[in-house]
Structures
1.
Amino acid sequence: MHAKCSDCSVRAVCCLADLQVNTAARVASVEGHPAFRQRMLALGITPGSPVTVLRAMPLGGPMEIEVRGTRLAIRRDDAAGIRVATP
Amino acid sequence: MRIALVGNPNVGKTTLFNALTGAHQEVANWPGTTVEYVVGRVRAGGDGADVELVDLPGTYALSAYARDEKVTRDFLLYENYDGVIVVVNAASLERNLFLVLEVLELTPRVVVALNMVDAAEANGIHVDAEALSHRLGVPVVPTVAAKRKGLQELLQMVRRVAEGSLVPLRSWPVPYPEELREMLQPIAAEVASTPVGQRLRPEWVALRLLQGDEDVIRHAQVVPQGRQAVNLALSCCAQQAGLEVELGGQAVALDPALHRHLRSQQSEFELAIADAKYAHIAEMVVSCVRRARVKRTRTEVLDQVFLHRFWGYPLLAVIFFVAFWLSFIASAPLSDDVGNLMAWLGRQAAVALGHAGAAQWLQSLVVDGLFAGIGAVLSFVPYMAIFFAIYQILQDSGYMARASVLVDRLMQMMGLHGKGFFALVSAYGCNVPALAATRVMENHRDRLLTNLVIPFIPCNARLGVMAVMTAAFFPGTLGAFVMLALILISLGVVAGAAMVYRRTVLPTEPAPLLIELPDYHIPSLRNVLIPTWHRVWMFVSRIWTWLLWATIATWALTYFPVGQPVDQSLAARLGHLMAPVGQWYGFDWRLMIAILFGFVAKETTLSTLGVLYGAGSDGALAHLLTQSMTPLVAFTYLVVYMLYVPCLSTVIQMRRESGSWAWTAVGIGVNVTVAFGLGWVLERLLMLLTGAGG
């Protein structure tokens, strides 16, 4: 479990950094530095949007996700600010 | 007529620009930044006769995250233009439409170029341009810029929109929810009577005020009505946040707790606004895009290899090795040829001067000063050209983004950003283009940090000198270990310096990493050649005077006073001045002079030493060097030589990339201190060890 995502008590809502590869989920909330949050919103990571983790780099490296038809790479620490709900 | 070209990164915007303008381009620097944008005239004939196109840096939104994006935003906000072409990638329309909506909120004089429709079709995505045009209210023209398809139609539409003969269907593109609109309208009404509101759309300003956009707030507050609008926006936020705030004229000074509350409310608005846009986009996409499920796209297949958890890394090593080899090793004979040609030309000129009866010193100046200087500048050109071409290919093809992802974890451990990896690797070839390659980083501090540590990496020229000296002092296998030790020392210094800089003067985490992994595609020749030419030309035009004067100065120092042996020259006197410093390390005056002259160009170090030691050929120099110092002193010299001040060209480039002489001076100061400091420590340490051993 990601260090910044320790309060993952409710199983259904967790942070993106902890999402398994090839699991579909929906974004629940987006947190981060204001400018970075703005960037995430602009790239389509908004609450309710479906997100899938496509692959994760070894040793805690960045993960590749697909959001709204676009593939993005995001560092795991930064993905910890995105909460997702799995169906 | 002036048309701005905007779009997300990786949508073929620059391809479109190049296809429309051909060679009629000019690179401009945005005032006060290192950000470049290109202005071009549309090729004559057809509808483009008098159209001037401005290719603005790629951006995902108008909220200015990176400096490049701010240039795009500032241009759209404060410059004059007659229309905007928003280039979108048909294959990832959803994300691209976000920028379209943001631009449409600012100006209705927009034409959308629906680019890369062929690639989208190949991926099973069909976009109904007419339906999309109907929904957006502005013309949408399908194009394939790489194949020059749809360009004439695009120009025709742009002309009609810019001239006002084609009026956009809608005045406002995004249907915001009722509660948002209720707040927007009074603020917009207030803004409308201000100069800002007359220049920009009041609704847009109102939106930005609600989001707490600092740039817009600053601009709005210049006039009383603007201040009122800002306060109105603040009070809306306050109401939403459930705060009772007296928002008079002095409302700006709020206590921190309240301010935090307001900030969180503003980010709520931000979320609501982005949400409304994407909701609207989702609805448009449903009615305009048909998706046939293709099994697996080319990009997905390639990524299974290139981004493989294990195989991705050896592949990265191979790709970067080939890139490195082509730029710096395969190009070496070319650079030598250029240098030799200039030397030959210099000798011819000297002979001609001799016939004309010119003085001896003038002949020498022409050969060893003037032509040597020009040769030094021009011999940069072959590998600069090859390097930048390869850099452009790696960028354009989509591989560079993958490489950043692969190495990000490793770079992060050193406090550096994944995007800086290629720059660090290429610094082993030449520090100068490596500094230019740091531009891919969005965050200023990340870039600056990478710029500051790059000079610690020994370039090709330094490695060459190091190899010769190592071979002389440590023959056989020992030499290989010494070289390895030197490279490890430089790596250690790079990592150490990066960490120290992060903890002291640049105290932030590396910027967040969130990058798009674009579809792979084969870059076109034109798209590689044009930027390569721009970059090489920018470098040469900037560096040539510096390098020429420095070479002439070097020449003068060794030539004068006339007729004296080399150990009586001005250079020798300078060397003797520095000898006390050298004594600490066991370096004699000749080694100090070689260090000093190495600043002009590292390549000259061996020839300087050759002249100073009176050696005829390289072999003789090696022998003379081993006579004059112990291996221990030689090793210390190598460490100092590897790490001290970068060459003149690097300094000039560093000034350009960092945008400040102060930071450049800091970089050089740290370089010199670390080089001589570490050299001293190593020397004492080795002395102790060998003393104990022997």
2.
Amino acid sequence: MQTDKLISMLATNAEPVAPGAVRRRLAVVLVAGGAGAFVLMLAWLGIRPDLAEAAREPMFWVKLALPAALLVTALVAAARLARPGVRTGHAAEALLVPVGAIWALAAASLASVPGEQRMALLLGDTWASCPFNIAALSVPAFLAAFWAMRGLAPTRPAAAGAFSGLLAGAVGATAYCLHCPEMAPPFLGTWYLLGMAIPAAAGAIAGPRLLRW
Amino acid sequence: MREREDQLKSLLLRGLAGEGAAYEAFLRELGAILRAFLRGRLARVPDEVEDLVQETLIAVHNQRHTYDAGQPVTAWAHAIARYKMIDFLRRRSIREAVQEPLEDDADFLASSDEEAREARRDLAVLLDRLPDRHRLPIVLMKLEGLSVAEAAKRTGMSESAVKVGVHRGLKALAALIRK
């Protein structure tokens, strides 16, 4: 087939294209992934019984702000990576803001207690299950994010996969906040971040395989 | 350069809004730019340039919904062309060629080449390998120019199945090319 003929073929009866494809797909990721994580958390883990009291403590909102800030950063980065020729700006550096903030809080909290209590702040009661639970709750958003990216045009598949995975991890961690009883910054700065890093790493590995177009 | 960008952008936006003639003109202009761009970079495999021009045009068409009106068309199309070229070189395990990371978008528009060579890979042959649910809608609507309603009647498919068939069929064609 000659190139001229290919061009006429592509242009013939080409459907009009509605703007906003990236936004629409990412909205689906948030709605479907968020609903999936929430329902999974409800059915499998349950909401923490003292949620109403916990919500009166500032630390509860700080804890929620960690995945929420990472969610927004990952969402912006994913939206840029989904489009050819759009610079990602300082997405990776922007991640350091919430991470640095929680580590600063963790350092302050570790410094404020005697040495023998520090391990308790770091490990809490649930360190062994926390990263795994967050990763599991991120699965619906992970599937949705890869579906969304596959319908768009990432030219850097590893980065697009990593930020899609991080987005999913942040959605999962946000839902997990409603179950998890831990409130200590050293715990959050370690196990929550690890839980979100699992889907991000999985996304970085899967991206080059699944996001070709 | 600025003028060229504005002209391409206006053609693409009109094309995305459904103006077939403007879209065709956009693809023609872009095809010539891609040919010059790729010919300059794939001097070692000149016979494959036209194949890659075609593959990139299909990619531009299939991902045209990712273009945002706030963005220069040049940056968008250049990024697609680079992506497709790198993908091609990887597929061929040609390692050394790609090394101009700081290349300017303006250079992308700098030259065009309207003289198409013969493509080595015949897309018509690949098209024949698609399943009927993809192939028939493409042949009837895109090659014979029938309307959705006519194509639906001829194939016995529903109108939405015909539309989906065109869309998925062109994606399947791109996937066959990548193999």
